[in-house]
Amino acid sequence: MLKYKEFNVNPKHHKTGDCSTRAIVGALGIPYDEALDLQMEGVKKTYYDFTSHQVMEYVLTKFGYVKHKMPRKDDNTKYMVREMDKVIPSQLLKKGVIVNVANHYVALKDDYYQDIWDSGYKCVGNYYTKSY
Asked: How confident is the model at residue 23 (pLDDT cuts 50, 70, 90)?
């Protein structure tokens, strides 16, 4: 089971609606301002909102990430964020993963999910891993 790690890379330490930027920083290991620049580039290319899945996919594709559908357990129930180590191999978790929960993005790295609040109980929708 993944553990929660409080992770606020916002330069002003604001707890604000920048989850997509924090997830990019957490998964890719790039500076916050670089993540913002990439998102802005995505906005200009797609004409979608800064935190939209279209912009996230634009940014992540540039780094070799691929989108996966919502994982389901054998009984068809959904996985929670903290359970994603049962779905994603450890070698991919080491590279950084981004999961989408209801209107929110979370970075998974190594044995942790990184966020400014404990989102581990949230059900995972799509998720993105670095291609092999």
From this structure: very high
Q: What is the mean pLDDT of residues 121-130?
A: 97
Q: Are 45 and 58 in contact (CB under 8 A)?
A: yes
Residue 71: burial class (beta carbons within 10 Å; 0-12, 13-18, 19+): middle
In single-letter form, the type of residue at position 102 comes to A
Give me the pLDDT at residue 132, please.
64
End-to-end CA, the chain: 23
The span from the CA of 20 to the CA of 99, in Å, is 10
- The pair of structure tokens assigned to 6 is 């409080």
Backbone φ and ψ for 18, nearest 5 degrees, come out as -110, 30
> Measured at the alpha carbon of residue 29, what is the angle toward residues 131 and 70, in degrees to the nearest 5?
45
Number of neighbours of residue 22 by Cβ within 10 angstroms: 22
Indicate the pTM of the whole model: 0.95
